[in-house]
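Below sits our specimen:

——
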Amino acid sequence: MWDKVKTFAEIIKIEHTLFSLPFAYVGGILAARGMPTLRQWILITFAIFGARSAGMAFNRLVDRYIDAKNPRSAHRALPQGRTTELEVVLGIIVSLFIFILASWSLNPLCLMLLPIAVSIIFFYSYTKRFTWFSHIILGMCLGMAPIGSWVGIRGDIQMAPILLGLGVTFWTAGFDIIYSTMDYEFDLKEGLYSIPVRFGLDKALQTSVLLHMISFLLFITLKFVAGLGWYYLSALWVVGFLLFRENSMVSPHDLSKANLVFFRINSLVSLTLLIFMILEFRF
């Protein structure tokens, strides 16, 4: 059983929770104008874990045949037979149950909006088959996290969480374009859709820069809409530098650092905003 749990953790790439969970906490802190209660912290954590686990496991299930042909992903559990389709389906069901229970416990509006969130999360797994807009859909999956936290605490939707969610959406889409450059040749061969395949590597990386600029402008706008102070402004300086660094580390002629950029720098972006948002309301 422990081996099955470890395999499922590998399937859902639990370490990548560092992208979405900090922003969910940022949305919660913004909604509470301070620290949410311990109960709210726990429920937000379980909601994000359940939603993300269900989405990632579903993606692995849908893409199992594509992953088997891709040298970069052929080592994954399903292509290698280290887990079964039934076990992944059971993992999805358990994850959805956790998501539903946590959402219901947070706020009735969370439960009402849950079908929309689940639909977008599951829909993403099919998008690479017919549209290069898939990067934006993935961004929406992560962008829903801070909005969901706000709804869970406040029971309404206002402009501040929408700006934060849109900022996360464009930030995610930007770094996903960089990540997808590693599969450029494979996607081209298999007829899969992505911005690198549609427009080429050079324009794809330019698009990533543009999306990150939009994301940064949305984060700046949030400062004024939410009435945030100097700690948040300090975070923006750090985030701006990280986004610049991220885009400067890759080029059409050198994509060797794409994986490093994807995980390390983007983890720092989300953690930076979380840390400074805590400072914003603690001091």
Q: What stands out?
A: The domain at 2-282 is CATH 1.10.357.140 (Tetracycline Repressor; domain 2). The longest helix spans residues 38-62. The radius of gyration is 19 Å.
